[in-house]
Amino acid sequence: MASRGKTKARHFTTHIDLPPAVREQLVDMLNDHLADTFDLMSQVKQAHWNVKGRDFHSLHLLFDEIAGELTEFVDELAERAVSLGGYAAGTARMAAANSALPEYPADVSDGLDHLRALVERFGLYSARVRTAIDAAGKMGDQATADLYTEIARAVDKRLWFLEAHIQREV
Ligand SMILES: [Fe+2]
User: Fold this and answer.
1) How far is the CA of 45 from the centre of ligand 1 (A)?
2) Is there a domain that residue 170 lies in?
3) Domain with 94 in it: what CATH number?
4) Ligand 1 center–CA 124 separation, angstroms
5) Exposure pattern of 44-59 as b/e (b: 16+ CB <10 Å)?
6) How many angstroms does the Cα of residue 64 sit away from the middle of ligand 1?
7) Among residues 26, 43, 29, 159, which one has the least CA distance to residue 101?
8) CA angle at residue 52 from 47 to 57, to 5 degrees?
9) How many angstroms is it from 29 CA to the middle of ligand 1?
10) Cβ(164)–Cβ(122) below 8 Å
11) How many whole angstroms from 65 Cα to the centroid of ligand 1?
């Protein structure tokens, strides 16, 4: 798990009925996903701005719609971390330092190449979110598990929107 230095140790009192050690683990996990989500959102924006080719306009709009949805999840993950008595590590620099996703390729222009880059990242992101659903449930926090479930369902749908451009029957 990535280190957030001093911010990782910041915790606050709360009347939420989960033991402090459990809340700290949940906050750490939420901050990891906050970083992933912020990073992914900025990568989708990068695609929104730089995409070129025959499908420019539809991809430009689709990428913006997806980035908007991810921005809402950034907010929900950060606010869940704070609700649990934690500290949200949510600046762009914190996200960049903590994200598990690879950097977005700077040398792609064509719509299909952007789609392939995003599909790869959405696949990684989705797998990590799915793991977090079970982890939060095992820690006794169904509310956080529910947030991850909501994100997983939305991200899987967005992955379909992206993949539908390049899918082949097997
Ligand atoms: Fe825009």
Assistant:
1) 8
2) no
3) 1.20.1260.10
4) 25
5) bbbbbeebeeebeeeb
6) 6
7) 43
8) 85
9) 30
10) no
11) 10
Residue 31 lies in a domain: yes
Cα-to-centroid distance, 46 and ligand 1 (Å): 10
Mean of pLDDT values over 41-46: 98
Is the pLDDT at 1 greater than 90, yes or no? Answer: no
Range of the domain at 156: 19-163
Cα of 73 from ligand 1 centre, angstroms: 19
Across 23-156, the runs of DSSP E, i.e. the strands, are none
Please report the pLDDT score of residue 10 as a whole number.
87
**Total number of domains constituting the chain:** 1
5-28 pLDDT, tens digit each? 555 568 999 999 999 999 999 999
Q: What is the CA(63)–ligand 1 centre distance, in A? A: 9
What pLDDT, in 10s, does the model give residues 107-162?
999 999 999 999 999 999 999 999 999 999 999 999 999 999 999 999 999 999 99
59 falls within a domain? yes
| Assigned domain for 3 exists | no
* Ligand 1 geometric centre to CA of 60 (Å): 8
